[in-house]
Specification:
alpha+beta, 17 strands, single chain, about 40% helix, 3 domains, four-stranded antiparallel β-sheet, v583 fold, Enterococcus faecalis V583 fold
């Protein structure tokens, strides 16, 4: 007791970090333990979790193995109606889980209007809106058609898409071409300028890229992503290295197959001026890598995280195509001049498929420049990735983080660990204005909400309980 009173105290703080900060400010010694209470599993399902733990672990290892063995290769391009399974002229695909027009957020409605104008089905915003409100179109998630789309993710029948094949398992995934930043369709802008750019991408960019990709015999995206991580990308919100590597790989074939040197130069300039061009390749690469894990009974590994600007949804390997949803959150962001968080729409887009595959926010330690979006430090980037190992089933030895001594990225999100440890996946993302037609207003980071994970774990355990 005497030594306890006389010796200097060193406080161990568990839980609320503000207490630790207060002690530090007064000159005290304190070690903070980042503990969080479990989000909770109903008592009736805890016994199922205990009795099924070995089966769940075995299933998760199989799901992780399939993800690790994936070999995504860019093999072709084509028009959506000809390439995407189930695509129809009056079907509009969107990001995130299912949603009706009445619940769509501003940027998604804007992108839908833009798609109708792009297709030539309407001549004005008012006419396009009337068609969309009248039930003239069907809406479906991109994920239901082997497709992913950034931000609003809207895909219409005439849009060109990349075709990525997972050559280990033979499945394919699709994604549109990236328009660039600012006032673009995926952020809900639909001006004449936006539609004109999309038409150029259909008439000029797509045919030239298609010929070049076909002539190349296919481009290994997994190897390209691995290189990009070594060069400072995380291939979600920073794609400068990935885009440069793609341009380096495609340029010889583009020059050989383009209709003219002027066309080749125009395309090279467009890609070179659009650092995010590779995002629309890393996304289908990630989806094609994850899809073979779908349908593995007992697995709690997440195979999709997606946001439609209203809802945040996830799917598990062991629960089929069922979506588990919660409210999408507004990102913490660095906003463009003249905008604030009050202008921001809640999180939106299928691009969180990259985090689902162990990239993006999970690999943010490889791209510390990203945290500057929210005034963070390089150490913050390291801490984000280190925390994600706590909810990952394993690591990807091909995707390595130099700053962590080339440790593989945390890979395979275990929904049970998310719930029991209270650690939420971190995403880095762009931010759309909440109103249709405005476009991008910033970029930053956001955590996934807990509700979808709680519901997903309960759904999986209920299935296991019923099977028992």
């Amino acid at each position: 007791m005497k030594s306890l009173i006389n010796d200097p105290l060193h406080v161990i703080n568990i839980g609320v970090e503000d207490f630790a900060r207060t002690i530090a400010k007064t000159g005290g010694a304190c070690t903070h333990v980042a503990w969080r209470p479990s989000a909770g599993i109903p008592a009736a399902l805890r016994a199922t979790l205990t009795s099924s733990r070995d089966a769940i672990q075995a299933a998760n290892q199989e799901a992780l193995k399939r993800l690790q063995q994936a070999k995504p290769v860019l093999i072709d391009m084509g028009i959506a109606r000809d390439m995407i399974p189930g695509m129809q002229d009056r079907l509009l695909l969107h990001s995130g889980p299912p949603i009706a027009w009445e619940r769509m957020c501003g940027p998604m409605r804007g992108a839908m209007i833009g798609a109708v104008l792009y297709e030539g089905h309407a001549k004005s915003e008012e006419e396009a809106r009337s068609l969309l409100e009248s039930g003239h179109y069907d809406f479906a998630p991109c994920h239901h058609h082997q497709t992913v789309g950034p931000m609003a993710g809207v895909v219409s029948a005439s849009m060109p898409v990349f075709v990525v094949e997972n050559q280990t398992f033979g499945n394919k995934a699709f994604c549109t071409q990236n328009e660039g930043l600012g006032k673009v369709l995926r952020y809900g802008a639909y001006s004449d300028e936006v539609v004109k750019r999309l038409k150029w991408m259909e008439a000029t960019l797509y045919p030239a890229l298609q010929r070049a990709i076909q002539a190349s015999g296919g481009i290994d995206l997994k190897n390209m992503i691995a290189q990009a991580l070594h060069m400072g990308d995380e291939v979600h919100n920073r794609n400068r290295a990935g885009t440069s590597l793609f341009l380096r790989a495609i340029t010889p074939w583009l020059v050989r197959t383009a209709e003219s040197t002027e066309t080749a130069a125009e395309i090279i300039e467009f890609i070179n001026g659009n650092d995010h061009f590779f995002l629309n390749l890393s996304m289908p690469a990630s989806k094609s890598s994850l899809d073979p894990a779908r349908g593995i009974a007992n697995s709690s590994m997440v195979v999709a995280m997606a946001r439609n600007g209203t809802d945040y949804g996830i799917q598990l390997a062991g629960t089929g195509d069922e979506w588990f949803t919660g409210a999408a959150l507004v990102p913490d962001a660095l906003f463009f001049a003249g905008y604030t968080k009050e202008d921001a729409n809640p999180d939106i887009g299928d691009s969180s498929i990259t985090e689902t595959a162990g990239l993006g926010g999970f690999a943010i330690a490889a791209a510390p420049a990203i945290v500057q979006f929210v005034g963070g430090s390089a150490q913050d980037a390291l801490n984000y990735s280190l925390e994600m190992y706590e909810i990952a089933i394993g690591e990807n030895g091909v995707f390595q983080i130099p700053a962590l001594d080339f440790r593989g990225t945390p890979t395979g999100i275990n929904a049970i660990d998310v719930v029991q440890k209270g650690i939420l996946p971190i995403l880095d993302t762009g931010v759309a204005h909440k109103d249709a037609g405005v476009g991008q207003v910033g970029a930053g980071v956001v955590n996934a909400p807990m509700d979808p994970f709680v519901k997903a774990v309960q759904g999986l355990l209920t299935t296991l309980n019923t099977n028992d």
